[in-house]
């Protein structure tokens, strides 16, 4: 995304810009103008975000599996969906007109001071606990210093040597179509920090402006251990982080809006070697699918260099994933470590957590994805079903509510994953947008199971329930859909059909028994589809085979 | 906030025509006197303010203490509004009609706020500093923004990007710094009281040089919101007045918790007014039993003998008032100076990063981003500021952090502890406010180390975050009528009230001195 790219600009000499100028407009609106030639070209549209990695289409690297091993770690930035920014009372709304949600504090005006929004701590503690981390009872904020036009103070308020949470883990179930399997990846640390603004490029492309709406928005940076070995593992790790923050309701986790950003560190080493190979960082990963594909590309690139004896050409650098060419390209070579001259933020007191506070947050945590998946598994659902249902918190909640209402687990899963999912996909809506409530799905399942309506009728009214709402009972009544389960009544219809089709009856009795289907159809038609199929067939067979 | 009318009536000396005192009388509270005169109808705010403006306009060409003053009309309009309120018997704030000057690093939305820097020339903040907001709410009339060393970095006010301020006692000398403009303005009675800021002595040293009272409050006592940051963990807004009572009333008006400053304290701020008892009502040994520790290290070699003798006589005066004097040693005292310069420079290198040419100052053109930053900062900052940014950047750099910044923080902890120990055994500590009296303009301009050494008396107090009151206690030779010497009283954290009480009794009983500079002596001496 934009942020990722411009971070690159920060330390790369600005080769691509013939001239830059910055301007001051009035006293409180900041923006800058930048002569620009190539910036536009890197702002490419990424393929649509996939909700889960099950849609990733990449090939495993056979030669790697034998001779080489990749070592992958991920830094994830999660934008918290707090009502106000981290250190001021400005709201943040993605897509708002530039510089409409700013104040002296997030503009970094001289004399303005940050005051921490306590909701940021709450979110950090939630995520820390959900990632099984140990929490620091005494952490602090630090200043990370560098110059860039989107960073209004010239430093970012972050956490350096004492993060709020560290040493945790994240459990992941790999997609069944990739062989499945359970993994546990280590979490190095979770820390709080503020976001920077954004550079906007004008249509004419000859200057850039600064939008500070995003400046000061709270972020959690989650750093994994280098525990992943394949693109799929990495993508599934990132998807699980997204699931987690959505379950916890601390972020919308939207990658396209930049609410969830992943930077990947990757190195390759001959299988069995203890030391890590040279590490390369990949940025500009806008979807789980690009995480997976970029890693797989980078693994083959590095393995190729190893096998050609050119391993020394793998250098410590930052590479950009190019969606168009499906390649990573060099963004900047690292010339030693950047010196951010961290020091404790003197404008903010230390962050002190009490055991009581942590416990109260801990006891208010919702059921987390991993726990939910294990519970679904224990309910007898297949891993495919488990992964589908637990993937999206809203779907999982709907499912949980449906079975809490007494619905059969397997039937509820089938309805949700089948017709309901198809409808949502088709209408491009989420489960919270459809008019069907879990209570009515429960009722629907019970009505079919109890024989009040047929499965076919159920399907018919399901669509109406999803699109228009209403109740199962009401629809059955309105549409006169109640099944005919009275054998006498069915017998009457059967008798009438047999009487109306003497020729076919003669043929049947002459041995053409496949005509049973014809009679069944006629009876069903005559009953306007309401005859209980089981009873219908039972009675029909009896009558057909009766010797008159 | 005035505790009771009865107290006023009985405890105040008779009203003087110009609201200051005759040469040998102790200083009175101009603020209380003004309020009384306004309420009684003896004078109007317009008349009072006009008198200050006339003096300001007459003396300003010599002093250059202000970087900006609104037009007389604008200022007098506020006075007129106040007079209307008085006419209508509307309630008046505790600073009603008090003419106040504000250091230019404290944000005012209706006046430029440059912090003495070319980079913020014509910059008008969209908000008032909390201290300024409180001044306005309490009825003060802000008469202008005072000159200062750029971003508060300096001890002479020669570091201003715009002008050099002269000392009202001798126009060839510096007023001290960095709050030199605010100190000179009070000294020359261009205003009643003024706000300064003190990071390493920037209120106390100019108070000493200009012969006025200066208060550096406890860190966190006064909100820093709207104070252009120099070194955030040390910066504090402070007060100047021509009497302890005025200084204390101003301090009380701007103090207290502020939700916009996370480092501001939630403690209550007691109203010090009741402590300001007039001389006639004092008992014979009003400070009986008070333990005063004289800091040995501050009266040793390198300190001007006239300063030493003035502080010694101040000590004797305190003894006469009943204090128990003892000598205390702060072994870490000398370490404080380098530690201060490392920490202050480190924080300033960070705080000043925002002046990068993107938002403030003149628009520059450059071929690439780094040269934009380089050109803008190289041309925009003054040499003292650049020196401190470079020192600070160095001290925070990877590989040097432990040896400098971290080490300096350890020293800071030691300094804090040694003060705590000394204040466990004493009610207050005393020392000079500066090792010398005001020196000639240009004298130390090219010798930064000599200038830094001049901060030895004050920086330790900032490292410890403690309150300190400086008040004039004597004279050294120089100028046409001598140069004032200030004595520093250091108290326990959040115990400004005690300092103000002691300071008030000290000045009310100090006989034979007149701290009105010759520049305005004719006018205010009556
Ligand atoms: Zn804001």
UniProtKB/TrEMBL annotation, chain A:
Protein family per UniProt: Belongs to the GatB/GatE family. GatB subfamily.
All copies of domain Asn/Gln amidotransferase, residue ranges: 397-544
PANTHER family, alphabetized: GLUTAMYL-TRNA GLN AMIDOTRANSFERASE SUBUNIT B MITOCHONDRIAL AND PROKARYOTIC PET112-RELATED (PTHR11659), GLUTAMYL-TRNA(GLN) AMIDOTRANSFERASE SUBUNIT B, MITOCHONDRIAL (PTHR11659:SF0)
Subunit-structure text: Subunit of the heterotrimeric GatCAB amidotransferase (AdT) complex, composed of A, B and C subunits.
Protein origin, superkingdom: Eukaryota
GO biological process, alphabetically ordered: glutaminyl-tRNAGln biosynthesis via transamidation; mitochondrial translation
GO molecular function: ATP binding; glutaminyl-tRNA synthase (glutamine-hydrolyzing) activity
Species of provenance: Lithospermum erythrorhizon
Compartments, record wording: Mitochondrion; Plastid, Chloroplast
The protein's role, per its UniProt record: Allows the formation of correctly charged Gln-tRNA(Gln) through the transamidation of misacylated Glu-tRNA(Gln) in chloroplasts and mitochondria. The reaction takes place in the presence of glutamine and ATP through an activated gamma-phospho-Glu-tRNA(Gln).
Keyword field: ATP-binding, Chloroplast, Ligase, Mitochondrion, Nucleotide-binding, Plastid, Protein biosynthesis
Protein name in the entry: Glutamyl-tRNA(Gln) amidotransferase subunit B, chloroplastic/mitochondrial
Catalytic activity: L-aspartyl-tRNA(Asn) + L-glutamine + ATP + H2O = L-asparaginyl-tRNA(Asn) + L-glutamate + ADP + phosphate + 2 H(+); L-glutamyl-tRNA(Gln) + L-glutamine + ATP + H2O = L-glutaminyl-tRNA(Gln) + L-glutamate + ADP + phosphate + H(+)
Enzyme superclass (EC): ligase
EC number: 6.3.5.-
Principal place of residence: mitochondrion
GO CC terms: chloroplast; glutamyl-tRNA(Gln) amidotransferase complex; mitochondrion
UniProtKB/TrEMBL annotation, chain B:
Example of a GO cellular component annotation carried by this entry: glutamyl-tRNA(Gln) amidotransferase complex
One of the GO BP terms on file: glutaminyl-tRNAGln biosynthesis via transamidation
Entries under PROSITE patterns matching the protein: AMIDASES (PS00571)
Keywords for this protein: ATP-binding, Chloroplast, Ligase, Mitochondrion, Nucleotide-binding, Plastid, Protein biosynthesis
InterPro entries associated with the record: Amidase, Amidase_CS, Amidase_dom, AS_sf, GatA
EC numbers on record: 6.3.5.7
Top-level enzyme category: ligase
Compartments it resides in: Mitochondrion; Plastid, Chloroplast stroma
Residues covered by the Amidase domain: 47-500
Record: active site: 103 (charge relay system), 178 (charge relay system), 202 (acyl-ester intermediate)
Top-level lineage group: Eukaryota
GO MF terms, alphabetically ordered: ATP binding; glutaminyl-tRNA synthase (glutamine-hydrolyzing) activity; hydrolase activity, acting on carbon-nitrogen (but not peptide) bonds, in linear amides
Keyword Ligase listed: yes
Reaction(s) the record says it catalyses: L-glutamyl-tRNA(Gln) + L-glutamine + ATP + H2O = L-glutaminyl-tRNA(Gln) + L-glutamate + ADP + phosphate + H(+)
Pfam assignment, any one: Amidase
Biological role stated in the UniProt entry: Allows the formation of correctly charged Gln-tRNA(Gln) through the transamidation of misacylated Glu-tRNA(Gln) in chloroplasts and mitochondria. The reaction takes place in the presence of glutamine and ATP through an activated gamma-phospho-Glu-tRNA(Gln).
Further comment found in the protein's record: This protein may be expected to contain an N-terminal transit peptide but none has been predicted.
HAMAP family tied to this protein: GatA (MF_00120)
Subunit architecture: Subunit of the heterotrimeric GatCAB amidotransferase (AdT) complex, composed of A, B and C subunits.
Protein family per UniProt: Belongs to the amidase family. GatA subfamily.
Protein name stated in the entry: Glutamyl-tRNA(Gln) amidotransferase subunit A, chloroplastic/mitochondrial
């Amino acid at each position: 995304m934009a942020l990722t790219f411009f971070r690159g600009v920060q330390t790369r000499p600005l080769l691509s810009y013939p001239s830059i100028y910055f301007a001051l407009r009035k006293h409180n609106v900041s923006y800058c103008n930048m002569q620009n030639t190539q910036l536009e070209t890197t702002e490419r549209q990424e393929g649509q975000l996939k909700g889960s990695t099950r849609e990733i289409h990449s090939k495993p690297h056979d030669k790697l599996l034998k001779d080489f091993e990749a070592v992958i770690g991920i830094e994830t930035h999660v934008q918290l969906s707090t009502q106000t920014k981290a250190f001021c009372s400005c709201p943040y709304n993605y897509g708002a007109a530039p510089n409409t949600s700013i104040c002296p504090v997030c503009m970094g005006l001289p004399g303005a001071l940050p005051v921490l929004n306590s909701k940021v701590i709450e979110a950090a503690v939630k995520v820390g606990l959900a990632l099984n981390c140990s929490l620091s009872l005494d952490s602090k904020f630090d200043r990370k210093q560098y110059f860039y036009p989107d960073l209004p103070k010239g430093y970012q308020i972050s956490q350096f040597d004492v993060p709020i949470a560290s040493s945790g883990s994240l459990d992941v179930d790999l997609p069944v179509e990739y062989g499945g399997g359970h993994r546990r990846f280590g979490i190095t640390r979770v820390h709080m920090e503020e976001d920077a603004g954004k550079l906007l490029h004008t249509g004419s492309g000859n200057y850039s402006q600064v939008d500070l709406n995003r400046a000061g928005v709270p972020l959690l940076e989650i750093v994994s251990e280098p525990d992943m070995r394949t693109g799929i593992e990495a993508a599934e790790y990132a998807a699980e982080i997204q699931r987690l923050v959505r379950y916890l309701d601390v972020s919308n986790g939207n990658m396209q809006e930049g609410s969830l950003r992943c930077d990947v560190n990757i190195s390759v080493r001959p299988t069995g070697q203890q030391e890590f190979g040279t590490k390369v960082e990949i940025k500009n990963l806008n979807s789980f699918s690009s995480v997976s594909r970029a890693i797989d590309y980078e693994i083959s690139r590095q393995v190729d260099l190893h096998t050609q004896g050119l391993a020394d050409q793998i250098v410590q650098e930052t590479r950009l994933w190019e969606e168009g060419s499906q390649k990573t390209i060099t963004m900047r070579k690292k010339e030693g470590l950047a010196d951010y001259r961290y020091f404790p933020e003197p404008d903010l007191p230390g962050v002190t957590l009490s055991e009581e506070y942590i416990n109260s947050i801990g006891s208010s945590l919702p059921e987390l994805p991993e726990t939910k998946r294990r519970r679904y598994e224990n309910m007898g659902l297949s891993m495919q079903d488990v992964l589908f249902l637990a993937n999206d918190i809203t779907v999982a909640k709907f499912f949980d509510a449906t079975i809490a209402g007494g619905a059969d687990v397997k039937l509820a899963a089938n309805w949700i994953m089948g017709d309901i999912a198809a409808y949502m996909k088709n209408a491009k809506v989420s489960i919270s947008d459809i008019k069907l409530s879990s209570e009515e799905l429960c009722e629907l399942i019970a009505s079919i199971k109890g024989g009040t309506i047929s499965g076919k009728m159920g399907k018919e009214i399901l669509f109406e329930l999803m699109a228009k709402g209403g109740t199962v009972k009401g629809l059955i009544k309105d549409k006169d859909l109640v099944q005919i389960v009275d054998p006498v009544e069915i017998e009457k219809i059967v008798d009438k059909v047999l009487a109306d089709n003497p020729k076919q009856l003669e043929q049947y009795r002459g041995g053409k028994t496949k005509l049973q289907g014809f009679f069944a159809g006629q009876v069903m038609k005559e009953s306007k589809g309401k005859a209980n199929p089981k009873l219908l067939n039972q009675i029909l067979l009896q009558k057909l085979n009766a010797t008159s | 906030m005035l505790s009771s009318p009865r107290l006023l009536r009985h405890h105040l000396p008779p009203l003087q025509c110009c609201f200051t005192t005759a040469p040998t009388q102790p200083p009175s509270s101009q603020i209380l006197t003004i309020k009384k005169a306004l309420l009684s109808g003896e004078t109007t705010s317009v008349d009072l303010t006009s008198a200050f403006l006339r003096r300001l306009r007459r003396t300003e060409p010599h002093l250059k203490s202000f970087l900006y003053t609104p037009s007389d009309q604008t200022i007098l309009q506020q006075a007129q509004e106040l007079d209307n309120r008085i006419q209508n018997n509307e309630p008046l704030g505790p600073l009603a009609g008090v003419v106040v000057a504000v250091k230019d690093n404290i944000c005012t939305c209706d006046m430029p706020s440059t912090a003495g820097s070319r980079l913020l020339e014509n910059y008008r903040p969209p908000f008032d500093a909390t201290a300024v907001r409180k001044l306005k709410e309490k009825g003060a009339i802000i008469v202008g923004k005072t000159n200062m060393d750029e971003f508060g970095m300096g001890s002479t006010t020669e570091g201003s990007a715009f002008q050099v301020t002269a000392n009202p006692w001798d126009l060839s000398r510096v007023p001290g710094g960095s709050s030199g403009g605010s100190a000179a303005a009070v000294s020359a009675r261009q205003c009643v009281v003024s706000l300064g800021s003190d990071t390493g002595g920037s209120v106390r040293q100019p108070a000493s040089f200009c012969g006025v009272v200066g208060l550096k409050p406890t860190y966190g006592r006064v909100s820093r919101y709207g104070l252009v940051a120099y070194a955030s963990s040390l910066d504090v807004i402070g007060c100047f007045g021509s009497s302890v009572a005025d200084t204390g009333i101003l301090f009380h008006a701007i103090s207290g918790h502020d939700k916009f400053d996370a480092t501001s304290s939630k403690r209550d701020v007691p109203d010090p007014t009741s402590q300001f008892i007039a001389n006639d009502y004092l008992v014979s040994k009003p400070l009986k039993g008070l333990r005063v520790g004289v800091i040995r290290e501050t009266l040793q070699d390198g300190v001007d003998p006239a300063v030493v003798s003035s502080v010694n006589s101040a000590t004797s005066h305190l003894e006469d008032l009943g204090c128990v004097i003892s000598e205390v040693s702060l072994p870490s005292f000398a370490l404080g100076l380098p530690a201060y310069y490392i920490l202050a420079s480190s924080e300033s290198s960070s705080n000043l990063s925002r002046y990068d040419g993107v938002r403030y100052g003149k628009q520059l053109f450059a071929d690439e981003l780094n040269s934009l930053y380089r050109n803008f900062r190289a041309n925009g900052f003054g040499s003292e500021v650049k020196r401190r940014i470079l020192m600070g950047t160095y001290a925070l750099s990877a590989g040097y952090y432990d040896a400098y910044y971290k080490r300096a923080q350890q020293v800071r902890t030691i300094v804090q502890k040694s003060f705590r120990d000394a204040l466990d055994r004493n009610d207050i500590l005393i020392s000079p406010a500066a090792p010398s009296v005001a020196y000639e303009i240009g004298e130390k301009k090219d010798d930064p180390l000599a200038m830094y050494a001049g901060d030895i008396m004050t920086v330790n107090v900032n490292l410890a975050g403690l309150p300190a009151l400086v008040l004039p206690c004597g004279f050294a030779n120089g100028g046409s009528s001598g140069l004032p010497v200030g004595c520093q009283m250091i108290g326990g954290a959040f115990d400004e009230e005690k300092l103000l009480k002691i300071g008030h009794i000290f000045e009310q009983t100090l006989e034979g001195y007149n701290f009105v500079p010759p520049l305005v002596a004719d006018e205010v001496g009556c």
